[in-house]
Amino acid sequence: MKRILLWAAVVLISAAGGAWISLALTARSVRVHPFFQALPQDRAAVIAHRGGSGLWPENTLEAFRGALAIGSDVLEMDVHGTAEGEPVVIHDETVDRTTDGTGRVRSFTLKELQKLDAAHHWESLRDTGVVVPSLRQVFESFPREVLMVVEIKESNPALTDAVVDLVQEFRREETTLLGSFHQEVLQQVRTRDFRLATHLGQGEVIPFMAAAWFFSEGLYTPPGEALLVPPRSGLVPVATRRFVRAARNRGVFFAVWTVNDPDQMRRLLARGVQGIITDRPDLAVSAATDAGL
Length: 293
Description:
InterPro entries: GP_PDE_dom (IPR030395), PLC-like_Pdiesterase_TIM-brl (IPR017946). By secondary structure, this protein is of the alpha/beta class.
């Protein structure tokens, strides 16, 4: 019996060793995408979450213009589809929270949606013509050089295709990072156009984090170019020094969301994070400038 157990242990160890060797031989470097080369090289990037929803009506042209004016490096936005399938920039699946209307975004045509007041809950901007913009309008309103993170909120192949089509039409393949909480959306984007940058989905972050814990990040091939993660997930810390270092070792951009407290910003910057996703880009610009790299 002891001999059988010994042989079983040898077989298991050999198999595990073979698996590690196989991973080491097949692990590939992460490509250097132009999106990340365009970011500041002397400090962490400030990514205006929904355009800076703590300062302006979120996901509006007014917010995006304001975020750029105060020094944000990247505009982050969310996309849903209208009744006719037009990608529009809004976070929720309904219009209730951010406009003076009610109902699901997909129940409105673009024309109907843009009759709503997207600044209804901002007294100083109410009834001043602030609307829910289409993604086309956002691309038309800003030069191609403006970096954007576009999160596709729905698991809808037609919407994903429409977003990719717009990125291609406006020749923004080098300045747009597409993201989603839906793994199938990320996979569709990567299949549609290999030139597009994506972040890692949850199912891709977990094995990378596990590899980092064992100082084995070199054995893992990240399928995307960025990690956009919360500081912690429940009781589990995510943005640790080890994970940040592992990402840097593999050439993966590491940004943390959604951070609005200046002290927390400074702590994360001290760990080496490369981006702060925030509703308060004004505070983040100051913190990132002070911290440098």
